[in-house]
Every structure is written in structure tokens, then in C-alpha cells.
Amino acid sequence: MGRRLVILFTMLAINALALVVIDQIFARIWFDNHNAMIAAAVVLALVNTYLRPLVIVLTLPVNVLTLGLFTIFINAGLLKFVAWLIPAFHIEGFWTAVGGALVISLISFLLNWFLKPKQVRVQIRRN
After folding, report:
1. What is the pLDDT of residue 22?
2. What is the maximum span of the chain, computed from C-alpha positions, in angstroms?
3. Cβ distance 78 to 43 under 8 Å?
4. d(CA 51, CA 74)
5. Do 38 and 16 form a contact (C-beta atoms < 8 A)?
6. List of long-range contacts for 83-89, beta carbons under 8 Å, 24+ apart
7. Per the count of CB atoms within 10 A, which of 4, 36, 75, 81 is most buried?
8. Cα–Cα distance, 98 to 107 (Å, whole number)
9. Rounded distance, CA 82 to CA 80, Å?
10. What's the confidence (pLDDT) of residue 90?
11. SS3 for 55?
12. pLDDT tens digits, 88-125
């Protein structure tokens, strides 16, 4: 149970950091206050955990045809959805959402790669 909470809070921190970065990079993405950023990080984590897998399965034929590139547009749509759910989180334009989704994906990938715990391999040999 404790390990799951650490993973959850790590994912929330990664989402919050990624949202701070896109807020600074893109002029057409902004938050009205810090509470909106925290709320957006929580909602984005929930959307990525529960809604994103469903949307990816439903759009699997298109995703296969585009060799996975359609996932970028799914991520952008989900980011716009989070902005729609949080009134103090603003994204102007779909292409801005695409850029923001790309940056969030890159930051999330890099931080998950660096923060991934080392896996211990146990090997038992019988003589």
C-alpha cells in the first residue's frame, strides 16, 4: 500500500512539473492560480489512468494505420478535456494542445526513466 502511494504522488508531481513547464513555454496555455495547476495535475493523472486506455482501445484501428502517431492527438484531446473540466486552466487552440501534449509526454517519459526503481533480479541455481 505504501509503495502505491509513493508511485501515485510521484506521478502527480511529474504531472504538476510538466504543467508548470508547458505554462512557461506556451503563451497560449496558462493557469489563473496555483490551485488550478494542482487540480489540473490531479485530473490529468486520473484521466490518464482511467480514460486514456479506453480511448486508445476504441481508436486502435486508426492508431495502427498511423503507426501510433494518432496517440499524439489523443493526448492533445485529453489535455483539452482537462482544460475544459478545470475552468481556471486555459488552452487556446488545438495545435497548442498538441504542442503541450508533446512536451508533457517528453517530460513524463524522461522523469519516469530517471526515477524508475532499479529492478533486482533473483536467480536460483541448483547444484
Report:
1. 96
2. 66
3. no
4. 11
5. yes
6. 83/40, 85/43, 86/36, 86/39, 86/40, 86/43, 88/31, 88/32, 88/33, 88/35, 88/36, 88/39, 89/31, 89/32, 89/36, 89/37, 89/39, 89/40
7. 75
8. 14
9. 5
10. 96
11. helix
12. 999 999 999 999 999 999 999 998 888 775 555 667 77
- Which cell goes with 41? 495535475
CA 44, 18, 39, 76 dihedral sign is negative
Read off φ and ψ for residue 119, nearest 5 degrees: -90, 135
102, 28 contact by CB (below 8 A): no
**What SS3 state is found at 31?**
strand
Weakly modelled stretches of the chain, pLDDT under 50 = none
Specify the pTM.
Answer: 0.83
3-state class (DSSP) for residue 83 = helix
Q: What is the pLDDT of residue 121?
A: 66
The number of residues in the chain equals 127
pLDDT at 96: 96
pLDDT at 54: 96
